[in-house]
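Quick check before the chapter quiz. The format below is the same one you will see on the exam, so make sure you can read both the input and the output lines.
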Amino acid sequence: MNFEEFQKSLSAFDPPPGISAYLQSMWYDFKGDWDKAHQLIQNIDDKTAAHIHAYLHRKEGDIGNADYWYHHAGKKRPEYSLEKEWEELVKALLT
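Here is the expected output.
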């Protein structure tokens, strides 16, 4: 699946079958279901999940918690838009 196909899937009722929990989380986040996105990612213990977790808390407005998760991901909180971060995360997950 490429980025354009993933974007097209956002008009569907359910995420594409067989995609990772990471991509499912980003899919639900885009669809406005922050709770489902967070639920999918919160118990995965790796740097990728920590980055998504950080992004979600940044989006939520909980910057302290976001920074905690960025640290665990080995990243710094970006200075650019959430939309750009979402796109970068999804593209990275698709490669």
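If your answer matched, good. The longest helix spans residues 47-60.
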